[in-house]
Design brief:
This protein is mainly α. The chain has 2 domains: 60 residues, Orthogonal Bundle (Tetracycline Repressor, domain 2), CATH 1.10.357.10; 133 residues, no CATH class. Helices cover 61% and strands 0% of the residues. About 14% of the residues have low confidence.
Length: 201
């Protein structure tokens, strides 16, 4: 196995452990999960901190979410396309939050090198430009019927997705009991607003 493939395999094995244990995860645990000798880890990573940074980089990467967005069928109505897109992006943000949250809670080293420093931002976590461009493609078939351009709509939708994280579900309930706003609720509010009837301003 070449070094890049070995790094990728080790990071894949380490990510669930980082989510579970944060920075307290040991290289022995990672080696056991990857079914390799502990020394193999240090052939491709200088130390555990470098391995943790690689895990953060992988968590922040939007590649998997972009692959999911590319699979959204454009034959569906816009609401269905946006629901699939929001689900893919929410899953990505959940993983980012789980990794960064676990590291932060255990005093993990951020990329700044300061203990407990946060790593990444929501904009970086969602992949920024590539994700916005993928969302623009989802809006594109409705370009002529939209009040905004697909570019503007994609930016607002992405912002609403970030804002929706941690909001209580529609119809009441506490944020503690259900920390994520349902993607169907998000899409419905995005497309139809919060009032039962449109209001001219």
């Amino acid at each position: 196995m070449d070094p890049d493939s070995r790094r990728e395999m080790i990071v894949r094995a380490a990510l669930p452990l980082v989510i579970e244990h944060g920075s307290a995860v040991t290289t022995r645990q990672v080696a056991r999960a990857a079914d390799i000798g502990e020394g193999t880890i240090f052939r491709v990573f200088a130390d555990k901190a470098e391995l943790l940074d690689a895990c953060v980089t992988e968590a922040l990467s939007p590649d998997h979410a972009l692959a999911e967005l590319a699979l959204v069928s454009m034959d569906q109505p816009l609401a269905a396309r946006l629901t699939e897109a929001a689900s893919a992006l929410q899953a990505h943000l959940d993983r980012v939050g789980a990794v960064l949250g676990a590291l932060h809670a255990t005093g993990g080293r951020g990329r700044s090198g300061r203990p407990g420093s946060p790593v990444g931002t929501p904009d970086r976590a969602a992949g920024s430009l590539p994700v916005r461009e993928a969302l623009v493609e989802i809006f594109e078939p409705e370009r002529e019927s939209l009040r905004l351009s697909p570019e503007q709509a994609a930016l607002i939708f992405l912002g609403l997705l970030f804002a929706g994280t941690g909001m209580p579900p529609a119809g009441g309930g506490s944020a503690d009991a259900s920390p994520q706003w349902g993607v169907r609720d998000l899409v419905d509010v995005f497309l139809h607003g919060v009032l039962p009837q449109p209001v001219r301003i």
